[in-house]
Each structure stands twice: as structure tokens, then as C-alpha cells.
Amino acid sequence: xxxxxxxxxxxxxxxxxxxxxxxxxxxxxxxxxxxxxxxxxxxxxxxxxxxxxxxxxxxxxxxxxxxxxxxxxxxxxxxxxxxxxxxxxxxxxxxxxxxxxxxxxxxxxxxxxxxxxxxxxxxxxxxxxxxxxxxxxxxxxxxxxxxxxxxxxxxxxxxxxxxxxxxxxxxxxxxxxxxxxxxxxxxxxxxxxxxxxxxxxxxxxxxxxxxxxxxxxxxxxxxxxxxxxxxxxxxxxxxxxxxxxxxxxxxxxxxxxxxxxxxxxxxxxxxxxxxxxxxxxxxxxxxxxxxxxxxxxxxxxxxxxxxxxxxxxxxxxxxxxxxxxxxxxxxxxxxxxxxxxxxxxxxxxxxxxxxxxxxxxxxxxxxxxxxxxxxxxxxxxxxxxxxxxxxxxxxxxxxxxxxxxxxxxxxxxxxxxxxxxxxxxxxxxxxxxxxxxxxxxxxxxxxxxxxxxxxxxxxxxxxxxxxxxxxxxxxxxxxxxxxxxxxxxxxxxxxxxxxxxxxxxxxxxxxxxxxxxxxxxxxxxxxxxxxxxxxxxxxxxxxxxxxxxxxxxxxxxxxxxxxxxxxxxxxxxxxxxxxxxxxxxxxxxxxxxxxxxxxxxxxxxxxxxxxxxxxxxxxxxxxxxxxxxxxxxxxxxxxxxxxxxxxxxxxxxxxxxxxxxxxxxxxxxxxxxxxxxxxxxxxxxxxxxxxxxxxxxxxxxxxxxxxxxxxxxxxxxxxxxxxxxxxxxxxxxxxxxxxxxxxxxxxxxxxxxxxxxxxxxxxxxxxxxxxxxxxxxxxxxxxxxxxxxxxxxxxxxxxxxxxxxxxxxxxxxxxxxxxxxxxxxxxxxxxxxxxxxxxxxxxxxxxxxxxxxxxxxxxxxxxxxxxxxxxxxxxxxxxxxxxxxxxxxxxxxxxxxxxxxxxxxxxxxxxxxxxxxxxxxxxxxxxxxxxxxxxxxxxxxxxxxxxxxxxxxxxxxxxxxxxxxxxxxxxxxxxxxxxxxxxxxxxxxxxxxxxxxxxxxxxxxxxxxxxxxxxxxxxxxxxxxxxxxxxxxxxxxxxxxxxxxxxxxxxxxxxxxxxxxxxxxxxxxxxxxxxxxxxxxxx
Length: 1083
Description:
Layout: H1 15-19, E1 21-26, E2 33-40, E3 46-51, E4 56-60, E5 64-69, H2 79-84, E6 98-103, E7 111-117, H3 122-133, H4 136-139, H5 143-156, E8 164-165, H6 166-172, H7 177-186, E9 196-197, H8 204-214, H9 218-228, E10 234-235, H10 236-247, H11 262-272, H12 276-280, E11 283-284, H13 286-293, H14 303-307, E12 319-324, H15 341-348, E13 353-359, E14 369-370, E15 380-381, H16 382-392, E16 401-407, H17 412-426, E17 456-459, H18 505-508, H19 510-532, H20 547-550, E18 557-558, H21 564-570, E19 575-580, H22 581-601, E20 603-607, H23 621-625, E21 630-633, H24 640-648, E22 657-659, E23 684-694, E24 703-710, E25 719-721, E26 740-745, E27 752-759, E28 764-771, E29 778-785, E30 791-805, H25 812-819, H26 821-824, H27 831-862, H28 864-867, H29 869-882, H30 892-896, H31 902-906, H32 922-926, H33 932-935, H34 942-946, H35 955-959, H36 964-970, H37 972-991, H38 997-1040, H39 1045-1055, H40 1060-1066, E31 1076-1077, E32 1080-1081
Parallel strand pairs: 12-21, 13-16, 16-17, 18-19, 19-20, 20-21
Antiparallel strand pairs: 1-2, 1-7, 2-3, 3-4, 5-6, 6-7, 8-9, 10-11, 12-22, 13-14, 14-15, 23-26, 23-30, 24-25, 24-27, 27-28, 29-30, 31-32
């Protein structure tokens, strides 16, 4: 088994990076060149270079967006700089020495750092720096790692004397200068602005002491005290209890995920306790607990979830695919600058679908261009864009890239140029030929991402009969549409009846060609008018692809959407339709279930409405819930929808592909996004309490935290907000408020927690969006991100998170009784309470005997036939009361009187009564403990003295005549039961008039009948649970069919210790339906 599959690796900082190499730094706008020595710190936080004057420049590796070497690096144009690098000499090998490092806070505002190496090492440096910059574990580091990053920077920022200036520390923490100076003094460090600190004095331990005094944590002290009960330390037993009660996910199975053991806790104490004497005694201090809560064990995101690789062998429609809209733009839709660099940045960010708006170039070059037609946006060459895509397509993800062409080039010659550039620049990466297993025929599925790895697919209007002249193509008749409505025109399959039949019958699909032509004719005229007056913009339709471009289109063929019924009838998985956001919202509101079914088979692309001229974005969440694959956004705008998009695609190794949830891709089940209940999915309840913030602002201001849940339409839509911090405090504000609760989150795998920190004036300070199923429970530090999703070094929020299975309020007590029987069990009653209870029971016994005697004596007076009723009733009624408990109690009674002995033999006969069917269970009989009650003979003894039995005998003849009739009318069976019990009790009392055993047994039988009803209820609940378990196992079994081999092995390794024989036989039972599938035991 590949154990690295679900393990994140630390950045690999190679030795040569730490030692450094000689480079020459140059700038595009200067003739000056600067010799430097470039290095990286051993932990991989910073890249820095030192010039000959021993001045140091730093580059935060978290800000690095790209590294380029060779022909893709920037090269100097000034002759003087070129001469320095001997670039004009053929043997200079300058391309092997050129290195460009691209940094920036987002995809638009970029800085280029240009170097020439003394040796031919540029490519090696470029590759290793980029790998560290895109390390997943580093981007999701714990709080302690970010504090280490601050310490590394301060340690490296030395002056010419090799000392650390105090002014650098003051710059690092500008919120409160006096607090910084006081914290330095408390750590025995110089505090004057012009003071310096020797590196051997500024140790990591001294830095931790400084942080403890600069940012005290009273809330952690309170948590500590609540577990130690006032002691100054926490023992390993206390810490074990803390970890198992507060830090553990209560939903985890204790067999598969055992509780933390004291020996494990001992290792944690040794790792985090700053006092060696405490650690040797197995104790941890409040400071040690704080360091633990900032350590790698308490990362707010489940690291195994981040490391998990999705199954990439399913058809492409089963995935969400990271997509960009109008990729070339760097700003607004009307006056923005177009740049090939945006294609690089989107690909590096994980985008797997890019948009190219292609227009005819002007003479004399007649080079195809990319721009936003009929606007004032700038133009860029089509060829430059193709080169940028070729260089960056597979740097951060090896999975296929889809190029969505919006083609307005109505020139055969220029379309041929476009096709030529695609073929020659992309080379083998361009998918031209179909895969043999996946023909373009109705009913055939699409290939999987793994089968198309490293390939580029073209999405362009494909004509079934390639045109050869411009007038055969559909000319643009109005401005280019920002919405790609033309992209989706059905005319890509509309054939001219005067043209000869196409050479490729598979591509044209003859059986459906007539339908395609009809659809095109019906909608062609409507489209042009519609586009001028709708969110779909005012652009004209695309032109028809000529032969060269049409030949490049295969598995992603755009088609105008007609209806879900029409699409299901055609059943073409390779056809994709595009929807403007407003049309998509309408479809979700009216046909959500149909759209989910459509997206299981083929693909949808959503794009912003044309009125979003500021390049703002719509929320992608509703379209993800409908299963839409390509939800295209404007990557130049870092608003909330883009932040949500980046948070989602941070998983599955940032490949740009995410396997959709089971409910939106399984063909055997339908899913309604507006449902309030999902079968087989257990809803969750999220509780989050905000405690405090750390280094939230550089200013002395009040701050607040907003918490929001994003999920299905029926999920709780609440947005909570703390009050502003009581005093201006940007370093360690506190909020002592009640927890925020989000109940009944229907589909936790498609719900997200968003936390935003703001200043009192509303200024954004930081945020974090985390999928609910990746959220770690317990006390956590949430390290914040910038608007562009880059990790912020200092800001964090301390919270407590609890995620539980949702239980309706009506069943909360019942759930507690099931899961915590010890807590809900009442303490045993005292002797005084038992005596009081016996008095009440004895009084009730005599009332029951009195009523039943009167009913029993009336019965034989009616007729001789009725005199025979007691034996008949004995066959049905009395056993019903005694059936549930024949074994423990009735046995001593036959010793006192032989009559009850035959009754246990008659008990199996009365099974017709469904409610009396459960097997006898001795435990309920033992619970009332009837044995001790006879010992308390002071209660039964007074009863024989009063002797109420003989006195009431004449009264039944006068008073109880009407009683049996209503009883028999309302419930004949109950009357028969009562008569039988009364007869038996009378016989017993006549034989032993002074012995209370008869009514004791009657009380026992009454209790048993009540117990039976209770047990019947529990039996029904048990049966329901068993059925639900069977359904869940069956559902799980189906899922196991598609497990990859290594995951199957992982399941087997967990199950084998408990079911070794089943696992051994699992491989042979796939077809036997024995609860074992695909070599995995699931029973």
C-alpha cells in the first residue's frame, strides 16, 4: 500500500539552496546589474540574496507564483546588459543561466525578479523553488510554523555587524510600540529603537518568551484551570482526559480510531512543555498547553483530507473542474488590459478550463488576436497566448486542460493559422485523435481525467460539413457576446442540405442530423434578437469552424441547450452547453432535479452575465449543488465567490479536478438540491465558539468576527457576528460570547464554514473558508488568509469547534439515553423511597382485586356456557400477561400452589396477538426486584387484618352489573383478561386467605404487561435500526465496487483484525452477493 497517498510532505529544502549560488540581478528598466549570492533558509520560508555591500533582500516564498528558466525567462533588451551576459555570443549558453521569479499578492499585480546564474543551474533552481512555493502542507501550516517564520526572518535581517536591529522587531509588530518594548524587557532583550541584539542572545526560547508577554492568552489559562481545578500543572491523566473529551471528534469509532493513551500524551508533554522539570514528572504547564494548541497536532484542517487523492478514473462529467471566464482580462470587461500572463497565472492556480475570444487580425500581418470584441480592452496575439499555455499548462497539475474558444475569425486563412499554432506549439499534448475506447456515439461515456492526463482539448463550434469559403460561415452580425451564447449555438451540427455528406460519419451522427438542423432553424432568428436584450450580452454569434479548426474538436463539442428531454433523447456525453448565470438560476429554480440528471451524463458551463462590466463574480455554490462542472469566474477579481472557489479547489492536490459527491453523480438515485432530507446522509450540527484573536491588525482598533455557513438551500442560512472587541486592541482581542450553532446541515461534504475578521469601520483583515468535512474539531487556531487566499503570517483566531450528528430536539433525550446510559440512569432508590412505593402499590393491588372479583362473579351467573369461560380464557388471556416472563418468577410459585404449573405449557398457544409475541426476557423481570418486597412484611401484614376480600363480595351483585358490559363493548379482550386474572386471584386467595402471595403475583403480572409494552416499543426501534443498517451496508457495498486497489487494501487492513476469514474470502465472493465486494469486506 502507498502510505504516502494520504500523507503531506514537508518542503524539501535541498542543501545547495541553503549554501547558495552566485547570480547577477538585473532590472528591465535599468542598465545596472548587481552581483549577489542567492540562498534559502533551511526551513524554506524565505529566498534572499546578499550583495557585495552585505545588504540583504528578502522574498517570501509564499508570494512566489511562478519560476521560469531558459526561453521562458525574461531576457534583457538593453545592449549594455546583454554584453554583461555575453548574450550575443553563440557559445554563451545564456538560456541555461536565465532565471525569472514571479511574485505578487494576486494574479494581476505581479513583480518579476530577473537573474543570470554564473553556472548553468537556472532550471534546477526554478523547479525546486516552485515545488516549495506550492507545497500544500506549508500553505496549511499550523500556528507554530507561522511564528517560526517570523523568528527566521528577524534572525536573518542582520546589519553589517551581524546583529539584529530592534527597529526590525518594532516594524514587525507595529500595533502597539509600548507593549512590544515591555515584552522585550520581560524577555531580557534590549528594547531601544537603535539597540541591536546578538544572534546568540536572540534564541528561539527568548523569542517564545517575548511572544508570551506580547500576546498573553488568559482564555487558555481559563481552559487550563477548568481541567486542573486550580493546580498549576496538568498531569498526563488530565491531559489525556482533555484530549479525549475536548479535542476528539465524538463521531469517530473507537475501534478504528482509538482514544488517546497516557503513553502518547507523555510524548506530547516532552515535545511542548518548556520546563524540563515539569516534563520529567509528566506534567504540562499553561504555556506548554498553549504551545500544544498552536502545534501541528491541532491544525484546523484535517491534513489527511488535504492529502487525499480522489478517484480520477471516472468519466469527466463526474468532476467539478476549475474554470476561468474571459481569461485574458486583467481588470474590467470594457476597458481592461489583456495579457498572456493571465493564462499562465490561471493555469498555475489550478484552472483547467480557459477562455479565448478569438478575432480576425488586421493587415498586413493578419495575425489572429484575442480581445473582448467591440470594447476598449487591449489586443494580444493568439500565438502569444498559445505559447503561454504550452509553457504553464502542466506545471502544477498534470490533468487535462480544456480551451474554450469563442471564435469570431471569419477567415479561412487565419483559422488555418490558429490550427497550425495549436498543432505545432502544443505538439503531442494536443488531443487530435479519439481514444479507441471512447467513440463519439450516443450512449458512450466520456474518458476519465487520468486517461487524458497531459492532454489539451479544444472546445470550438464544430461543423458537421466543414465550410471552405467565408460566405459559407455564419458572419458576426452584432458585437461579441460576453456570455458565449454563440459558443453554444446548435449550428455546430447544422448541415447545409446542398453540401455533400461529411467524410466522418461518426462526427456528424447521421441519425440525429435532421433533429440538429431543425433545432438550429427554429432558434437561429430568435437568438440574434434575444442576445441584444438579455444578460447574454450584445455580441454576435460565432462563425462556423472551417476544416482545419473543426478537425481539432472532439470530446468537448458545444451545443445550444434546447431542453433536458431533448438532451436525454440524444444521450451524447461529449456535447456541452453553456448557460449565462441568470439562465442557470432559472433552471435551478424550476428544473433542479432534471439538471442534476443532465450533469451526470454530460457537461455544463456557467459564465457571468454581460452586465458584470466590473468583472464581479456570481456565487458558484448553487451551480455546484446542481452538479455543473465548469463554473467559470473572473480570476482578476478576488471577491467572495472567487475565495469560495479557491477554497474548494485547494483539495485533491490542487489538480483543478474534484470528484463530485455521490448524490450528484450516481445514476441510480435522484437528488433535489432543495430537499430537506437526504437518504443515507446523516445531517450534522456545527457549533463554534469564538474566544480570541492574535495580531489581527497593525493598528490600535476594535475588531469583530463574522461566521457564515454556505451549503444547500435548506441548510441553516444564518450569519453570526461577534460584538466589537471591548477595547481597541489589534494584538489579542477577546470575545466572551455564547457559541454559534448551525443545526441540520444536510450534506456536510458540500457545506463550507466561512470566518471573516474586520475592523470596526468594516475594513477586511483576513478570512478563512474550510469545507465542513475537512474541519478539525476541538480548540483550534484558524490561521487567516488574504483576499487572494494567500496565507497571512501573523493573524489568527482561536476557537472551539464541535461537529455532531444532527438529532431533532424531540429525540435529544432519547439519544442521550442510548449513547450515555450511565449519565441518564437514575440512582437506586433508598429504603424509605421503596417503602413509600410499596404502600402505593399495595393499595392499587386491592383496588384491582376488588374490581376483578366483581367482574369474575358476575360471569358465571349468566349461563352454564359462560361458566366454562375461565379455562378458555386461560388459553388466551392469562398467558398473555405472563408470557413475556415465564422463567425467573413463575417457577417459585408452582412450589406454593400447583395450579400455575400448566400455564407455562399453554403460553406458546396464544401467539395470534402480535403485541404479545416477543420472546420472554428475564432482565425486565429482574429490574423491579419483587424478591425484596416480601421481606418488607410490615406493608402486606396489615392487609389480611383488614380482610377486604369477604366484605366486598355481595357488593358486586348490586354495583358492578353495568361494569362488565361497557368493558366488553369497548375492549372485549381486556375484559377477558381482567376476568381471567380475577378468577385466578380469587382461587388463590380462597386457598391461602392470609397469604399475600396472590396479589403480589397479580402486581408482578401487571408490571410484566407494562414491561412488555415497553419492550415491544424497543423491539420496533431495534428492528428499524437493523433495517437501516442493512440499507446502509447495501449502499456502502455498491460504493465499494469502484474503489481503487490501494484504497481497498487500506479498508482490508482496518477490517482484517476483526474479520480475518471474511477478508480472505472477499476476493472470491464478488458475484455471490455475500456482503463482500471488489476484494473488500463490507459486511
